[in-house]
Fold:
Amino acid sequence: MNLTAIAIAAAMVGGVGLIIGVLIGVASEAFKVEVDEKEEKVRACLPGNNCGGCGFPGCDGLAAAIAKGEAPVSACPVGGQPVAAQIAEIMGVVACVEEKKVAFVKCAGSCDKTNVRYEYYGNMDCRQLQVVPGAGDKGCVYGCLGYGSCVKACKFDAIHVVNGVAVVDKEKCTACGQCAAACPKGLIELIPYRAGHMVQCSSQDKGKDVKLVCQQGCIGCMMCQKVCEAGAVTVENNLARIDYNKCTNCGKCALKCPVKVIREDHVDPQAQTPAGPMNLQQMVQNAEGVTR
Structure:
């Protein structure tokens, strides 16, 4: 065995390793990406759902935007006010108290209230059903298709199809907006949690045409608008709409509505907790035995 050859080989390998190590060290310094300490702290506060409800590519994208001042500290709809307060402390600003919002499905056309034009057999997906003749099997072309694209989009188990219509559990809803983005008919909107009255319809047809396809659709009679003393209810394109900046939750619109399409949720303004009957569990129980 030639010890000299072995020593030379070992020295060469060690030398090459040393050179590579030095080069790697130099490269790491030369191409080092500075990490914003605030960005890391903000990211640690975010829930990590990566739902996209904030409008940024996941929690990492939002953290970077907040650290750069390109997004408000309250931009995370999932974390809500508690997370906003933590991030505000990190950023050294005052967190704006934003009103909690929840998703709401503007349709009451359940299986027992709306006409069905044909039996649909195919993929259980609203977006695919939207392109078939008549834009769905229900008589109302504006109504909820009931095949659960919104359910699949929700990462928080906050929306389910009950008796042919999507229903939101407002206690689980984080207002991320993914269900609204998934609905091909644009039936889902974000409304204030405190909203006690909601128009559960999206049809813009005239009253007589609405009544032909749905027992509980807005007929544009304007009775709700006439009795609203706050000027919060208006009828446009044969459909009642509520301005929640003006609404006082007096309930006169719901009381006067002849087709009872204005849904009423009783909310305790102090506890911000629903006290009325319109929760998901009870709606499921009411719909028990009714299948699509």
